[in-house]
Specification:
Blueprint: E1 3-8, H1 12-23, E2 28-32, H2 55-67, E3 72-76, E4 79-85, E5 88-93, E6 98-106, E7 110-112, E8 128-129, H3 132-135, E9 144-147, H4 153-160, E10 166-169, H5 178-186, E11 190-192, E12 196-200, E13 207-211, E14 216-219, E15 221-223, E16 228-230, H6 234-238, E17 242-244, E18 249-251, E19 264-266, H7 277-297
Parallel strand pairs: 1-2, 1-6, 2-3, 6-19, 8-15, 9-10, 9-15, 10-11
Antiparallel strand pairs: 4-5, 5-6, 7-16, 12-13, 13-14, 17-18
Helix pairs in contact: 1-2, 1-7
Amino acid sequence: MRHDAIIIGGSFAGLSAATYIARARRRVAVIDARAPRNRFAAHSHGFLAQDGSEPRAILAPARAQLAAYAEVSLVEATAIDASPIEGGFAVTLGDGRVLEASKLVLAFGVADTLPTLPGLAERWGRTVLHCPYCHGYEFAGRRLGVLQTASHSAHQAMLISEWGPTTLFLDGGDMPDPDTRDALAGRGVAIETRSVARLLGEVDAPLDIVFEDGGHDSVAALFIAAPWRLSSDLADRLGCAVENGPLGPVIRTDEMKMTSVPGVYAAGDIARAPHSVTWAASDGVTAGVAVHRSLAFG
């Protein structure tokens, strides 16, 4: 069966787009590899009426509600290729199946590239974090840290200080310039210059930061600016324009989430910065409405 739209990605952006297309009585397939970016987080915060919920616990009923629409096909698979065909697009799945549709919505998300610091990866989304608006409140008033991983880590430390006393760990990197040091001091941010060797302690407990010289320090949570990459190469395969975001690539879209390729839309973290569940869902709604109007009016 040819679909009106195929959505590649079944997390917050993709499911939101699919819901609006289905409610417009159009046939839509959602291809979902079931690997959302925030699967490492114990809880999601800031999403209306779901504050503190486990991310998969939010997605599960959303997926079930979407499946109730007769116009919807949920396909658990990985899309490995996409190309234009007459009147639309063909999407090839990892198992060899090929689906066709008039429109595409890319919502496959991004993947974070974490520092290779021992002990960091297993704490990602728990006590090693990237977004204070998503996770800062739970650690408010306790000692916090920012590990220097990007040019704007000093600015991140100034922001994190809104939630608690903060130390910027330079990890052996260069000392900030005098103006930045003054700004950090004005926000009460301390600077630690020593190189970090590893993180120790229970995964959900305060972090024991071990330095290369054998010294130790402790924080309740450590924030980092982790670079991201697109979780799929389909945007490149389709010829969509991609721009440099603050920490990784961003697919260029217009105000209705259409990419530089007519008929291909992009929503969620791949098509914006900054990122959050709420923004992803909102962008999905925009893309879903735009897809339907394009189908209706050409």
